[in-house]
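TL;DR need C-alpha cells for one chain.
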Amino acid sequence: MNNWFPYNEGLTIGAKGPEGDVIVMDEAHPIGARITIKQGEKYVSVACNIYNWINHTRFFGTLSEAKNEFGHMEAALTEIINLLSAREVDKIKVWEAISNFVRRYP
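>> reply
TL;DR here they are.
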C-alpha cells in the first residue's frame, strides 16, 4: 500500500534551497518519513529521511536517473516504515533494513 503524499501539499515544489538547488519532487509518509529530489547546477540529489532513524542522500548526474531511483528508494523506505509500524518494533530488524538500504542505495 502506498501511503506517500505530496509534502506540505506540494507547496515545496519549485522552492529554492540555501545552495540554489530547486525541489523537483517532495513526498512524505504519515509515519514520519520524507523523500525529496533537488536539482542543483552541478548535480541532482535524492534525500530521504525517516525521522529519528535515517537521513541519507544520493547524488546523480541527471534528473531522469534521480527520478528513476526515487521510485525504487521510496518502495524500499516503505519496507522499513512497515517494520516501524509493527505492534512491537524490533529495533535490530529496523537497523538491519536501514543498513541494507544504505548498502543498496549508496
